[in-house]
Design a protein that fits this description.
The protein is of the alpha+beta class and 137 residues long. It has five helices and five strands.
């Protein structure tokens, strides 16, 4: 299978649909861990391959310095999803996702806040140079 921008965007669309379904069922105001469990279940039911709470080594200039970074969710080994259940999205969350994308070389990331009245209004989608270099169709 050839990985294209359209393929990745189609997966992202499914991911957002799953987030909307979870939010529709639960509403705002719960802990991030509750949303994450339900969200993972929705993603799996949608036929997506999901890994959660993935630890990455801290590598600096090619050297493993020990310690670990933790990704919330990786879908189909292509899209990093960072979940939040916060009152307000702050720039630090976007910087965190951007750093994870850079470290892993994944083409796309989604930042989803479940503590909101409308998932899509707070949703942040990011792409990398890897994404830009892929064929569109």
């Amino acid at each position: 299978m050839i990985i294209t921008q359209k393929y990745i965007n189609d997966i992202a669309y499914k991911i957002v649909g799953c987030a909307i379904e979870v939010h529709k069922q639960l509403g705002p105001g719960l802990l991030e861990s509750v949303y994450e469990k339900c969200f993972i279940e929705e993603l799996i039911c949608a036929g997506l391959h999901v890994k959660s709470q993935i630890y990455l080594p801290i590598i600096y200039k090619g050297k493993d310095l020990g310690g670990q970074l933790k990704l919330d969710i990786l879908v189909n080994d292509l899209i990093i999803v960072e979940n939040k259940a916060v009152e307000a999205m702050i720039p630090l969350y976007q910087a965190q996702l951007l750093s994870y994308l850079k470290i892993t070389g994944k083409p796309k990331g989604l930042l989803i806040n479940f503590n909101t009245t409308n998932i899509t209004q707070d949703l942040v989608s990011m792409v990398t140079e890897e994404f830009s270099s892929l064929q569109k169709e």
